[in-house]
Amino acid sequence: MNQTILFPEREHWDEAQRAVCFPALVNGFQVICAISAETVASRYGGNCVREWLSAFQAHRWDIEEEALASIQDEEEDDQGWYWVS
Hints:
This protein is an alpha+beta fold. The protein is 36% helix and 28% strand.
């Protein structure tokens, strides 16, 4: 699959999803990627939104690599989101 995939540094907390969400640009189109608070906490620690966002930022490259693989494998959910688990 020959795609250009970029990850702008625009992560945010989504309370409804209880996840850190971050965009990816796939051939110029934006898709949403996410990693749940539970996954961030189990991997990197943290007990609150501020700590989960900080952990995401500290491990951004690893998380984005997993999201990249999910995008390339076309593993979006019913809403078109790509989840790092």
